Amino acid sequence: MSVHGASAQEMFSGTKEVADTHKFNEDNLYQWMTQNVEGFEGPMDVRQFKGGQSNPTFKLITPKKAYVMRRKPPGKLLPSAHAVDREFRVINALYPLGFPVARPYGLCEDESVVGTMFYVMDNVDGRILWDGTLPDYEPAERRAIYEAKVKTFADLHNVDWKAAGLEGFGKEGDYVARQIHRWTKQYVASETTTIPEMNKLIDWLPKNIPAGETTTIVHGDYRLDNMILHPTEPKVIAVLDWELSTLGDPLADFTYHLMNWVMPSSDSRGALANIEDLNAYGIPTMEEYIDMYCAHRGLNGMPDVHYYFAYNGFRLAGIVQGIVGRVRDGTASNANAAQMAERVPLLAKFAYGEAQKAGLAD
Asked: In whole angstroms, how large is the CA radius of gyration of the chain?
């Protein structure tokens, strides 16, 4: 399904003129680049990427090569949001290991340069695909892309984060318990109507966390449009958008990604749940995809997938209810507030249904 006749690919791809609200002193940036980026030579032209990032992202074009700058947005922000310094830290740790991320050049914490903190990395040329159903590809190509995607995800979870210098990047252990506590608090603070399923989940989820939780680097929002594929091969050459990355439970990270197989989607990015015969279409079934991930990680299956779906549905309901609450309190203006409010009970019902499959008795 497309939005107003434009495909997701057309809507989000490429660059545009820098938006008025995101303009900054380009001369200052040029000076910083000259002093801090090895091999930098001007002149430099600045463009803004169109895609939906919460951190404004710019393409810096010079005669010899292009760079990417990600910066905190201007204005008053939530204290932990838009942490470009954390993004830079994880990319800087992963790049020397050969994990596919763009080469990082430097972080600038001096806000006098462009007005907010920013970092600069390589511009990686390749394909960013916005629709997970891959409508423009043949079945064999689709399968190869999904195989590359799941292998890269497993590779991330296999990284020895201590050896990579990421101690202190997040708390070790009890990730799911802490997340449940956090989103319960957020949900209760911003509740607008009583949703019985949410109240039952608030009680059941913390008491039934699966045993044996491990700690790895987690991405937080791993999906097709957060990666760059090789121009012609089914190969991930850069994983993007690390702002939600931390240390956490890899199965929570993986099953959040897996929601693509079970959650219907109404937007233009395509839902796998809407495809009747995934095998014929070339995309692995959810069971196959789980098996591939487990094989790359040396895991013996994933028995707790329904618990994790319940947890992820609950977490999303908490996030969306938080937005509804901020609109109610007048701290956020959102034209889609009513639509957001409708999503919460749907997510709650989904999460509750998954919890029942995981053993929640009425």
From this structure: 21
Residue among 312, 308, 304 nearest 348 (CA) = 312
DSSP state, residue 6: B
For the structural domain made of 8-122, what CATH number should be given?
3.30.200.20
Q: CATH for 139-357, among 3.30.1490.20, 3.30.540.10, 3.40.50.720, 3.90.1200.10?
A: 3.90.1200.10
328 has pLDDT over 90: no
Name beta bridge partners: 58. Answer: 48, 69
φ, ψ for residue 130, nearest 5 deg: -95, -20
If pLDDT is split at 50, 70 and 90, which confidence band does 3 have? very low
Cα 31 to the center of its chain, rounded Å: 32
Local confidence band at 322 (pLDDT 50, 70, 90 cut-offs): confident
Using 50, 70 and 90 to split pLDDT, how confident is the model at 53? low
Task: Fill in the DSSP letter of residue 261.
Answer: G
Residue 325 backbone dihedrals phi, psi, to 5 degrees:
-65, -40
For the stretch 77-109, what's the b/e string if a residue is b when 16 or more beta carbons lie within 10 angstroms of its beta carbon? Answer: eeeeebbbebbbbbbbbbbeeebbbbebbbbbe
Domain ranges, ordered by start, for the chain: 8-122, 139-357
Axis crossing angle, helix 250-258 with helix 286-297, rounded to the nearest 10? 160
Judged against a pLDDT cut of 90, whether residue 6 lies above it is answered with no
Instruction: Count CB neighbours of 49 within 10 A.
Output: 18
Q: What is the pLDDT of residue 187?
A: 94
